[in-house]
Structure formats: C-alpha cells, structure tokens
Amino acid sequence: MRWHRVGARASGGALLLGALLLALAACGSEPKEPLRIGVNVWPPFELLYLAREKGFFQQEGVEVDLVDFSSYTGILRSYHQGNIDGFLGTLNEVLLTENFQDLPAVILAADYSFGADALVVRDGITDLSHLRGRKIAFEESALGSYVLGRVLETAGLSGSDVVTINRLPEEGEEDFRRGQVDAVITYEPSVGRLLRESGARVLFSSRDIPGEIVDVMALRHSVLQGRTDEARRILRAWFRALAYMNDHPDEAAALMARREGVAVADFLQGLRGAHIPDLQENRHLMGTSQQPGPLYQTADRMARFLVQRGLAKKAASGSQVLHPEVLGSL
C-alpha cells in the first residue's frame, strides 16, 4: 500500500509537472503574426493575390497578409513605420541606401518590365526632342526618376529643358486627362487607360531599355534571418501561382483582372509588357553567393547610374542586397 500511495503521488506530480511544461512551451511558441507584404498595382504582382485566391499560401503552410498601396512611396513610408515586413518593388528603389536604415534583402526577381513602364504623350509630340519646354508628370521615386533620366538622355535634353511635376501615378494620369501636363511617366494598367485618350501615344518605354527595370521581392533582414522557412514557403506559393497562370491563362487572367477592376483584355495587355522569370530562370539570374548571377551586374550598373545622375548620394551593390540562398534551397 505504501508503494502504491507513493506511486500515485508521484504520478500526480508528474502529470502536474507535464501540464506546467506544456503551458510554458505554449507561451514560448505563440503563433507568429502573418508576414505582411506591401503590394502596389502592377499586373505581375497579382500573382501574390492569385496564390491567395487559389489557397497556395495555406497549402504551403504560411500566413501572409497582402497590404495594398497605390504607389511605392506609400510602401516605403509604411516600411519605415514598421507596418510591413517586405514588399514588391523595383530593384533600383532597393538600391537607394539613404532610404533605408537596414537594406532590404532581395529574395526574388519578380519580373522584367518590357514595355509596361512608359512615357505617354499628347497628340503633336512625335519625337522626344519635342519635349523641350513641356510639362511632364512623374513620381519622384527611384523608378520614376530613372525613367525620366533615361528619356532625357535619349532625347539629348537636360532636366532644365523640361518642366517636371512630381505626382503620384493616379494624380499624373488625371492631370494628363485634364490637359494640365503634356506627358506622363507611368506604368500599366495606367498606360492602357491613357492610350484610350484621343491622340495619346507611347513615345518611350521600358522596351527601349530592356533588362534595366527589374521588380523584386524584398524582406527585412531581421525577417529573413528569423523566418527563413516562411520566406521559402512564400516563394513556393509564388511559383505555384505562376505555373497555374501558365496552365490556366483564361481563368487566372479573369481572377486577376477582376481584383484590379479592369477588363481582362486590358490586364493581359499590361501583363504582356513584362516578363516573369520562373524558378529556373530566377536561379540563373541570382546565382549563388559563390557564383553571382547576371542580376548582380544589373544591380551594379543601376547603382552607378543612380549616383552619376544624382538620383542617389550612395547606392548599394548587388552583393549587399541580393540573397540567392532562399531560391537555392527551394
């Protein structure tokens, strides 16, 4: 009887201790908040929403909040305020070291712009040299400033030869409609909408500078270091969405166009202005830390341009922002 009682007492203590340990473990492993990714309107970026719509994030076991923005400027502000963990944006924006206390980590080449970023002009402006003295609306971001710089360089003009007006994309589009500016630098789907205006035409686009405008997915370094597996799962969901779009183009286009509030034909037109690399091409572009891929050279060339043109006091190199290890582990 004595051993039985002692045994019973010990069993009760063990159960109590086990319950306590489980409670402590639960406190120490509270569910993490969803990763918050900032996204602005751009046809290739809709793949993230397609991944959510088709349940790919859930199937990959990762929680993601997609936060909508109307411009990159809003994304950058929210990033600084700590409201988002990462974003989709152009590589040249990521290279601007003065914009970040801690440079974001690029883990994916989302797309190359090939005609979807453009200079739309009014009727009567048939040559870039005709921009002299004209009003041009553009967003004073690294992307908008870069495209403006390439337009002026190609035209043989300087900044003082034109009147530039810093406007958010939707504001520039409205200014053009009202006749308040002669040209606007913008991107799809705004380009497609503007081309429906009488006499409007594209005079310069990313098709004229192939491979120079690259969109990427970037995360905070702290997020990448602490939640690497979740970053990997997000990329797997991204590539599943890309494969789904390629296999079911009509259904995917309809879903993505509906979310953007545009006609399917307009969405497809915008999508044709970009190239979306698959996993194999991404691995080629990013390479490895030991054998850097072509995207490193693209980043370094862009960094030199940004500094030379006065668009940045200092720009990061490819080796500072590109992190191919996540792709390499897929």
Describe the structure.
This protein has 16 helices and 11 strands. The chain is an alpha/beta fold. The protein folds into 2 domains: 35-112 and 212-328, 3-Layer(aba) Sandwich (D-Maltodextrin-Binding Protein, domain 2); 117-208, D-Maltodextrin-Binding Protein, domain 2. It has a 6-stranded mixed sheet with strand order 2-1-3-10-4-11, with helices on both faces. Strands 7-6-8-5-9 form a 5-stranded mixed sheet, with helices on both faces. Helix 2 packs across helix 11 (249-260), helix 10 (228-247) packs across helix 11 (249-260) and helix 11 packs across helix 12 (264-272). The protein is globular, with a radius of gyration of 24 Å. It starts with a helix and ends with a helix.
Inertia-based shape: globular
Mean pLDDT: 88
Strand order of the largest sheet: 2-1-3-10-4-11
N-to-C order of helices and strands: HEHHEHEHEEEHEHEHEEHHHHEHHHH
Which CATH C-level class of the largest domain is it?
A: Alpha Beta
Low-confidence stretches: 1-29
Number of strands: 11
| Share in helix | 40-55%
CATH H level of the largest domain: which superfamily?
Periplasmic binding protein-like II
Biggest sheet layout: 6 strands, mixed
Radius of gyration, CA atoms, in whole angstroms: 24 Å
Strand content: 15-25%
Number of domains: 2
Figure out the total of helices: 16
Looking at the overall shape, the CATH architecture of the largest domain is 3-Layer(aba) Sandwich
